[in-house]
Amino acid sequence: LLYSFILLGMVPAAIIAFFSLYIASSSIEQQAYEQLTSIREIKKNQLEDYFQQTQKDLRLINNVWSDNLKLDSELRPELLASLKHSFFESFINKYNYYDLFIIDSEGEIFYTVAKEPDYKTNLKHGLYKNSGLGRLFEKVSRSRKIEIEDFSAYAPSNGEPASFIAEPIEVNGKVVGVIALQLSIDTINQIMQFREGMGETGETYLVGDDFKMRSDSYLDPTGHSVIASFAGNVRNNGVQTEASSAGLRGQTSTDIVIDYNGNPVLSSYTPVSFLGLNWVLLAEIDEAEAFAALNNLQMIIAFICLFTLAGIIIVTFMIAKSILTPIGGEPAAMESLTEKIAQGDLTTQFSGNSHHTGVYASMVSMTHSLTRMMGSLSHVTIELSSAAEQTSSTSVQAS
């Protein structure tokens, strides 16, 4: 009964549990993948919008400066820039730029808002010729179009990483200089570190083609920040993982990989390109948290199966007891007793303290009755034998 009931009860339950878990697992996994992919795409769109906006801002400030040069052609550009200082300062503060540069065609930086050590230096043959701004000035002068320079250590800004976007200044069809904006890492961090729907371990960050950070990590803001990444090395402060490598190769996907901390994570990655920049955007969350709902479901189903098994065992014993009560004993004992009685063996010894019930009690009673009956028959037989012997003896004596 026990084995039969467990088989009949647990096999359907196991089948239902398996298919329920399979369907739910697929749904939960798909939801986790789609949610992370959606966050990745949202961040990518926001980042692309930011770069597009920097391009528009640069064009706007360039147009303002060019128009002023045309209107005040008799003023020296240095003096005109000083007169417009409050406007330039309010512009970079409002639109969150680190600095603004106006460079003449000979490479002289004759105006900056921040007035750092690069002010009044020359980008063609000066101290910062090989800096990011110097390389950008050379590119813009050569291409005569808008260009961007990736983050690199910039000495005038305390050696911290800096990125620039620049455009040639044209007056009456002639290039008279270059205007540049120094991008603020804070703006990029604001985009990447907005964590709605990312849970406790989720984060999005950017990695450059040198595997160094292009935005600060939320989970490790000290060791994996942009500043730490350029000050340190890729092994300790960068991200050279399977996901970042695949993203830099132009691949877009969502997979379970090992992150820069050595933990298994669900990672959604995609390349980000703008004016020659080659970055990868990664949205990641710990595998345990991403599939926490699935783990909880597995535990719930396991508890249900154990509870079902316990219920089946209890019900089986109750049914077995209800069957055994009218019989009065175990089937094996009943069979043995029946066979002995059928063979005429009434020598079975029953405990006087046993409280037998049902058919078993009746068979015990029958055994006792047959034993007494056989005893009575034996006594009668003996008496008849004695009487017969006495009769025979008297007959002999009479003869």
Question: Can you walk through the features of this model?
Answer:
A hairpin with a 5-residue loop joins strand 7 and strand 8. This protein has twelve helices and nine strands. The protein is of the alpha+beta class. A five-stranded antiparallel beta sheet has the order 2-1-5-4-3, sandwiched between helices. A four-stranded antiparallel beta sheet has the order 6-9-8-7, sandwiched between helices. The two termini are 76 Å apart.
Keywords:
single chain; four-stranded antiparallel beta sheet; alpha+beta; 399 residues; five-stranded antiparallel beta sheet
Task: Please outline the helices and strands.
Elements: H1 2-71, H2 77-83, H3 85-94, E1 97-104, E2 109-112, H4 132-143, E3 147-153, E4 161-171, E5 174-183, H5 185-192, E6 203-208, H6 226-231, H7 234-237, H8 242-248, E7 253-258, E8 264-274, E9 277-286, H9 287-290, H10 292-327, H11 331-342, H12 358-398
Antiparallel strand pairs: 1-2, 1-5, 3-4, 4-5, 6-9, 7-8, 8-9
Helix pairs in contact: 1-10
- Estimate the helix proportion, in percent: 40-55%
Helix/strand structural class: alpha+beta
Termini separation (Å)? 76 Å
Portion in strands: 15-25%
Question: Largest sheet, order of strands side by side?
Answer: 2-1-5-4-3
Radius of gyration: 47 Å
Order of helices and strands: HHHEEHEEEHEHHHEEEHHHH
What does the oligomeric state look like here?
single chain
Helical region count?
12
Mean pLDDT: 84
What is the approximate shape?
rod-shaped
Spans where pLDDT lies below 50 across 5 or more residues: none
Largest sheet: 5 strands, antiparallel
DSSP E strands, number = 9
